UniProtKB/TrEMBL annotation, chain A:
The protein's name in its UniProt record: Phenylacetate-CoA oxygenase subunit PaaI
Organism: Nocardioides immobilis
Organism placement in taxonomy: Bacteria, Bacillati, Actinomycetota, Actinomycetes, Propionibacteriales
PANTHER family per UniProt: 1,2-PHENYLACETYL-COA EPOXIDASE, SUBUNIT C, PHENYLACETIC ACID DEGRADATION PROTEIN PAA
GO CC aspect terms: cytosol
Listed GO biological process terms: phenylacetate catabolic process
Top-level taxonomic group: Bacteria
InterPro entries per UniProt: Aromatic_CoA_ox/epox (IPR052703), Ferritin-like (IPR012347), Ferritin-like_SF (IPR009078), PaaA_PaaC (IPR007814), PaaC (IPR011882)
TrEMBL record, chain B:
Pfam families: PaaB
The organism's place on the tree of life at top rank: Bacteria
Protein name: 1,2-phenylacetyl-CoA epoxidase subunit B
InterPro entries: PaaB, PaaB_sf
Cross-referenced Gene3D superfamilies: Phenylacetic acid degradation B
Length: 284, 98
């Protein structure tokens, strides 16, 4: 880590003096590199590499697709502050997706789509940009269109509650890489759940219109939550949020898509993948 | 809080303490529906590049500020009191940080 030294001359000119000193505090470097660089990705004995890889792929796809969906809010959120908040959630999920796709590719390279000889595209990008909709393993909940802000809040609440509960359990998974990814994600998801939970309560107790939109949005996503896995703990948390907000759980039957995706995924992927697919030899 | 419905969220001033900072520093302002969301917004808007370890927010209308009109009566009198600065002492060589 570079040495941190503080400014003195212009301390009173900038509000950030004393906060920003030099590049040593930046959260990220200036370049994209393998997110698992230097990490031992050997699959532990007793674990089926293919199963581990497909599991990581499923978790990575959930994060990648919801990240892409939430990014659609950029410049369209109700307020500048919410715009940035949603973009932050999307970026957190993109970070989770990168790690999980890279983990999947390292555990079972046969999952990675073949690219032209000499292509510089890393395995995580090959998985993200060169698979078709049928090869994606995400839950339908994350691919549905955003709807309005209230619907997005409800969906982030459901998704983050289920995923946080799962990631807490994964912090004791036998695979050290997945354990580390989960431990990092727990902090992010705790914030996502808190953010969405607060907005859920605010909209529920706001005006008649905000409450109506919240209930309508929740009814559209509620039926898809079982694809995130059976999880009593997550259900209990959701029950508490609903009870505190005075919102009844939507009376909808679980939708089972039988592993198939909705039509919305292929459109989302078309937009997300078009540039990468036109330049399989491209360097970014 | 009143139940009055307003079209605009109130304005908040944001103070952040950095990892190595000793005190909270004013970094800017933002809008939020309530105090708790103001802290979340401040986290998202002002600490997303790893700047902070602590946040204060305060409603802007809760701040009483000096007026530019009062500048002279408030601050001019201290401008010529050089003897209030400790510059008339010989500082011994073994006193650090002076």
């Amino acid at each position: 880590m570079p040495e941190i030294h503080t400014h003195e001359a212009d301390e009173h000119d900038s509000a950030y003096a004393g906060l920003l000193v030099n590049d040593a505090h930046w959260a990220f470097g200036t370049d994209f590199e393998d997110p698992l660089a230097g990490v031992d990705t050997t699959v532990p004995e007793g674990i089926d590499a293919h199963e581990l890889a497909t599991y990581c792929l499923r978790l990575g796809d959930d994060a990648l697709i919801l990240s892409q969906r939430l990014s659609e809010w950029c410049s369209r959120a109700p307020d500048l502050e919410e715009d940035i908040a949603l973009a932050n959630v999307a970026l957190d999920l993109l970070g989770q997706a990168r790690l999980l796709l890279a983990r999947a590719a390292a555990a079972d390279p046969s999952l990675v789509p073949a690219l032209p000889e000499g292509s510089p595209v890393p395995p995580e990008d090959a998985l993200a940009f060169f698979r078709d909709d049928r090869e994606f393993r995400n839950a339908c909940l994350v691919e549905l269109p955003n709807g309005d802000f209230a619907e997005t809040v409800g969906r982030i609440l459901v998704f983050a509650t289920y995923r946080l509960s799962l990631f807490q359990r994964l912090t004791s998974h036998p695979d050290a890489v997945l354990r580390a990814v989960a431990a990092k994600g727990v902090k992010e998801l705790t914030y996502h759940r808190d953010f969405a939970g607060r907005w859920f309560l605010t909209l529920a107790r706001g005006s008649d219109e905000s409450r109506r939109r919240l209930e309508a949005g929740l009814a559209r996503t509620w039926a898809y939550r079982h694809e995130l896995g059976e999880d009593d703990e997550a259900e209990l948390v959701l029950e508490q949020v609903l009870a505190t907000s005075g919102i009844a759980a939507p009376d909808v039957r679980p939708i089972s898509t039988g592993g198939r995706h909705t039509e919305h995924l292929s459109r989302l992927l078309a937009e997300m993948q078009v540039v990468a697919r036109q330049h399989p030899m491209g360097v970014w | 809080m009143s139940d009055e419905v307003r079209g605009e969220w109130p304005l908040y001033e944001v103070f952040v303490r950095g990892k190595r900072g000793l005190n909270h520093v004013h970094v800017g302002s933002l809008h939020a529906p309530d105090d708790a969301m103001a802290v979340r917004h401040a986290r998202d808007v002002y600490t997303r590049r790893n700047e902070g370890v602590s946040i204060w927010v305060v409603r802007s209308d809760a701040i009483t500020a000096s007026s530019p009109d009062e500048k002279d009566p408030l601050f001019a009198p201290s401008g010529d009191k050089v003897y209030r600065h400790p510059t008339f002492y010989e500082i011994p060589d073994n006193v650090p940080h002076m």
